[in-house]
Design a protein that fits this description.
single chain; 191 residues; alpha+beta; 4 helices
Length: 191
């Protein structure tokens, strides 16, 4: 058998929407497949909007002052001199990338751009705040203020985290990371 290479049609590591490894689509009807495909396109658009926003923030290129989600997010992030797409790392088991983050004069700011319509939770930003403290060895009690913002549906929601909010998350990260590492070690020793 002479197998076809398909190197021109398929990039290495890519997966088709109707992929055999994502076989759930076999049970979809016409309406469901179009809904799932539409959601996938929205997700890809969200990824592109995040990349565009990060580029604007990096270049300090403000957008027209409107009540549009993207414009408010970019302009506020620039105004607060924030770093876009910043990875916060504790361990291989716990890290993440904040959409925009800034720390100056004891004030931590974490902004999140949401392009979907489902209301987002502040939990993600609370975890970023805890990861920031762990990554940069800053005690939460040393923060003058920790402001989290979610930009979504042409609105900005703001929450201020207190030390009592952040410390339990830090403790949980450390505890769960240790448990996972012990489990990995036990599993490795059993091999």
């Amino acid at each position: 058998m002479q197998w076809k290479s398909h190197t021109k049609e398929v990039a290495p590591g890519s997966h088709a929407f109707l992929s055999p490894s994502s076989y759930q689509w076999l049970r979809y009807d016409n309406e469901k497949i179009l809904t799932v495909y539409s959601n996938r396109l929205a997700s890809l658009r969200g990824t592109q909007l995040h990349a565009f926003a990060a580029q604007c923030i990096t270049l300090r290129q403000k957008l027209p002052r409107t009540s549009q989600t993207l414009n408010m997010y970019v302009n506020d992030s620039i105004g607060y001199h924030m770093q876009p797409e910043q990875t916060l790392y504790y361990s291989p088991n716990c890290f993440g990338t904040a959409d925009a983050i800034g720390f100056s004069k004891g004030v931590l700011r974490v902004h999140d751009l949401k392009t979907g319509t489902t209301e987002a939770s502040f939990d993600q930003l609370l975890i970023y705040s805890a990861l920031f403290c762990l990554d940069y060895d800053i005690r939460p009690a040393m923060l003058q203020k920790c402001e989290a913002r979610i930009y979504q549906n042409d609105d900005v929601r703001i929450m201020n985290f207190e030390t009592d909010d952040i410390v339990p998350v830090i403790d949980k990260i450390i505890t769960f990371d240790n448990l996972i590492n012990e489990f990995k070690e036990d599993e490795y020793n059993e091999l």
